[in-house]
Amino acid sequence: MMDFSWMQIILTGLIFVWSGFVRSGLGFGGALFTLPFLLLIHDDPLFFLPIISLHLLFFAGLTVVQAERKKGTSENSPTVNWAFVRYALLIMLMPKLAGVIGLLMLPTALMNVIIYLLIAGYSISYIVGRPMQSNSRKIDVLLLIVAAYISGTSLIGGPLVIAVAMRHIKPHEFRNTLFVLWWILVSIKLTAFVIADVDIQLMNSLLLLPFAALGHFIGHKFHDQLLQRDSRHFYRLLGWVLLATSFIGMFQAFG
Predict the structure, then answer these.
(1) CB 19 within 8 A of CB 52
(2) Which of 86, 80, 150, 94 lies closest to 122 in space, CA to CA?
(3) Nearest Cα to Cα of residue 111 among 194, 33, 186, 44
(4) CA neighbours closer than 13 Å in the CB half-sphere of residue 5
(5) How much is the mean pLDDT over the chain?
(6) Is residue 153 part of a domain?
(7) From the centroid of its chain, how far is CA 217?
(8) What is the pTM of this model?
(9) Number of independent structural domains in the chain
(10) Is the confidence at residue 89, as pLDDT, over 80?
(11) Angle at CA 125, nearest 5°, toward 124 and 130?
(12) What Å distances lie between residue 235 and 118, 173, 238, 243, CA to CA?
């Protein structure tokens, strides 16, 4: 894996266990809750984003297929809200492409600072227990446009999409509906990477797949409990950790 030291390799493996855990446990956050840690190891988002994207395609697709096979076995079977997927995609496609272009053109150092600032903002909303919410169609559209652009640049637009999704989909549809939406949007991003001749890190993705798979399995078990429990304390703790990591990353970027 490039010229990483053994310590960097071990830490990267552990972070991808965490990536798999939050992605399958929460339905989002595979990039949001891991990218700031990864950038402290190697400060190039274009190295890690293709790996995270490929893992998302694999695990999101696997989860949705398994869930659809089980659909109908109980009243609360996981389902996909296809109406919301279509609604979101119609708004998000163009700003998503604009965001990908921005990622490819902006200097790496500037991109890192933007990522850390966005994550710091998300962290504060989790710490104070006031995640973003939408209460009208106009705000829906605005949040989805901004989320699409952010997702195009860094794959961390999830909280903005969730602010909209909470108004439109039921709790038991939440994870799989988001997975379908992420799968389509990430496919667009990877296609743009290939067209722009960006290395999609296929071999490194395969090497890190077992670590992400371990986290995915643990997160899958955690997801069922999360639907039944108050997760505010978990998000608050996570917010403090991400905020501290963002400050460290910005200090390194400006240092």
Answers:
(1) yes
(2) 150
(3) 44
(4) 3
(5) 84
(6) yes
(7) 17
(8) 0.85
(9) 1
(10) yes
(11) 145
(12) 16, 21, 5, 12
CA angle 143, 62, 100 (to 5 degrees): 40
- Within a domain: residue 55? yes
Comparing C-alpha atoms, which of 129, 123, 117, 162 is closest to residue 143? 162
User: 183 pLDDT exceeds 80?
Assistant: yes
159: in domain: yes
CA dihedral 187, 192, 194, 199 (to 10 degrees): -90
Between residues 25 and 138, the one the model is more confident about: 138
- SS3 of 40-90: the string is HHCCCHHHHHHHHHHHHHHHHHHHHHHHHHHCCCCCCCCCCCHHHHHHHHH
Compute φ and ψ for 31, nearest 5 degrees.
Answer: -100, -45
* CB count in 10 Å sphere of residue 95: 19
- Dump pLDDT digits (tens) for 3-54: 788 899 999 999 999 998 888 877 777 788 888 899 989 888 889 999 999 9
Checking if the pLDDT of 2 tops 80, the result is: no
CB atoms inside a 10 Å sphere around CB 62? 14
Amino acid at 51: I
- Say if 1 falls within a structural domain: no
- Domain extent for 193: 6-254
Exposure string over 10-34, b if 16+ CB within 10 A, otherwise e: ebbbebbbbbbbbbbbbbbbbbbbb
